[in-house]
Recover the amino acids of this structure.
């Protein structure tokens, strides 16, 4: 007899190639030793958290054994943390936010799922520039939403604004922007962001006249701090009153496992209060209940800090050298910590396999809705990147 | 224009009486001072966590600033924690569990939502003895499941096994048991549990012959450690191979805000491995990603400890005195930390209001699918219970 649903069974089958890759990696590491394998497949930030994490945790430890020291907090977050976040996001987003515009969440992922639960009706569409973080599909799919990917423009992978506009229908409930982008590392220009916000505004004006539920601009910003070569990431929240922002401390503070993120809404949005109440409700009813209280306190204590971003910058430059030396085509990413490099053959799985033979692990572009490319993550030590250079060359020679 | 869905808007409206009560409580506390109000409405464990929480957190602090010290862990949990949990649950459930039978979760709530996402098809029914923790409805409702409450037998609120059997249809995907029970404090006898497990086994035998997906016994056990007067809580996992168990450390270690729980499956279940893989997948795709790593480590370090349960026992006996003194009908709970007391009038909201006038906050039985009763939580200091005794008397006088 079947234990799971057909849909979940299909999901397991379709994600099994990622699993195969993961298992292949484990096998290689077992066979040749951890150090022999160049694993660029994982986005698990390995740069140590700031040293102050230790002292912050020690302070939390002292208070933890008081009554309610680690008890439930309000579903939207610890009041003092929401207050600190409102100030922090007000500066970052150049928008005057109050604590009641912020909900603390179980990572950026938890924020997005809570948001979709609050707004998605079955059949709703969510427009997203491709390539994209593949879990977006599941996040809205749980509630009957459907992702509508719109290819971005290689080689920079800036968004195709005209195509995004053309993709909007009366069923479109949101456009997701993710800048700096996973997997491309592209930082969207302020002009592009404005143009995308205008799509949302224009559509909402039409809906105000002709009926229909609101459409949102959803800015997913876990990589906001990761901007190099003097690039800046424009605030998204002020671009349209229909904007929601979400993010996390997973990458900026290397706290990914502790699951702390946030959701914030433009205070000028009509119905902003109801939306925040709805996201607070779904945070509860989806079983998150509240963002982990230790993580919330840690994040609040370290709001003005980040991990050493220069480490990621050095890796980025070193990875560029390694790829260039092998003749692999790529655009130097200005943001995040990924490279989205062109496969020398149309079927990028063949390239993935050739790299595997060199004990180099990367992720197929198919995993991001954009075949013909592979994603490489810089969440590894410089010496591993240095060691991979020859392997890249040998793999490329197979396609000459 | 509408921001949220109709369904979420309805949920917000229907939970607004709880909110009104919460706000009434805040108002009373503001007006008369925190100490003047006897708030028995909240199940937020206020007994301090064991002192070792502090030392465990300090150890975690030292390791936290290493690379990946607080990074992502596998979606099913930190391997060492799963291993410790498998041993712990093997003893507790008298069933030989391996780490691959356990998934760490964002509280028991996160475990249940992940489970329902893995198994519920739209239209599926989930049978539950009433009164019940009202969020169960939302947990399965997110995915089109429907709760089917079956009244338990007052005054003890032991489950009505015959009625549960009669409630099962080909659409039934699970029976939830929650013992010790929220809100009644009832500990189900081993005989009752066996009889409920037999319903599941009988139905699955029929389905094996005639077709259909499996039906599960889902044992929700966050209060397992809370058993008084020498009562014992029988292990549920061995009762049927179709049993899944979930629980948390929210109550036993007063860690509710840190969101750590677990899901475990009977290894003899046909398809157990697929079910665990599915729950691991949904843990990821629902945005939990993994249970908070600090909480996981804390729980693993304190597996053999609990808060001081004698504090809850003393409160229980004191609450019994206070209710008895006022002539309120109740069954002395053997488990958990709640009283489910009979309202002196049919409409228990009238009783709730009369208690409010005495600055005593309780929750209407309607909030648990069982009107005519109110729930009182013992998550408050003894002196508050003592102080409430006269208020109970005065409130009861109104109904004579």
């Amino acid at each position: 007899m079947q234990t799971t649903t057909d849909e979940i069974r299909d999901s397991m089958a379709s994600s099994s190639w990622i699993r195969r890759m993961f298992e292949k990696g484990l096998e290689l590491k077992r066979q040749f030793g951890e150090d022999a394998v160049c694993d660029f497949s994982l986005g698990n930030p390995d740069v140590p958290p700031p040293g102050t994490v230790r002292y912050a945790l020690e302070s939390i430890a002292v208070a933890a054994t008081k009554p309610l020291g680690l008890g439930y907090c309000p579903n939207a977050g610890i009041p003092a943390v929401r207050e600190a976040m409102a100030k922090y996001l007000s500066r970052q987003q150049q928008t005057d936010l109050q604590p009641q515009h912020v909900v603390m969440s179980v990572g950026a992922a938890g924020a997005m799922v809570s948001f979709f639960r609050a707004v998605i009706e079955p059949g709703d569409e969510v427009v997203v520039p491709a390539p994209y973080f593949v879990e977006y599909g599941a996040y809205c799919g749980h509630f009957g939403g459907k992702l509508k990917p719109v290819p971005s423009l290689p080689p920079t992978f800036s968004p195709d604004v005209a195509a995004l506009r053309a993709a909007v229908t009366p069923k479109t409930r949101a456009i997701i922007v993710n800048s700096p982008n996973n997997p491309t590392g592209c930082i969207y220009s302020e002009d592009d962001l404005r143009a995308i916000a205008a799509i949302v505004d224009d559509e909402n004006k039409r809906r105000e006249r002709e009926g229909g539920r609101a459409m949102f601009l959803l800015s997913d910003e876990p990589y906001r701090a990761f901007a190099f070569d003097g690039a800046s990431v424009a605030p998204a929240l002020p671009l349209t009153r229909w904007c929601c922002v979400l993010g996390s401390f997973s990458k900026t503070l290397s706290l990914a496992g502790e699951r702390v993120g946030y959701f914030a809404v433009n205070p000028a949005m009509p119905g902003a209060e109801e939306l925040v109440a709805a996201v607070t409700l779904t945070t509860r009813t989806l079983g998150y209940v509240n963002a982990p209280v230790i993580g919330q306190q840690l994040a609040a204590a370290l709001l003005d800090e980040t991990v050493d971003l220069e480490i990621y910058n050095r890796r980025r430059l070193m990875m560029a050298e390694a790829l260039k030396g092998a003749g692999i085509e790529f655009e130097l990413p200005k943001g995040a910590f990924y490279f989205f490099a062109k496969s020398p053959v149309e079927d990028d799985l063949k390239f993935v396999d050739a790299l595997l033979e060199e004990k180099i692990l990367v992720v197929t572009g198919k995993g991001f809705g954009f075949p013909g490319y592979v994603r490489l993550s810089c969440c590894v030590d410089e010496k591993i990147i240095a060691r991979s250079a020859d392997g890249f060359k040998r793999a490329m020679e197979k396609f000459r």
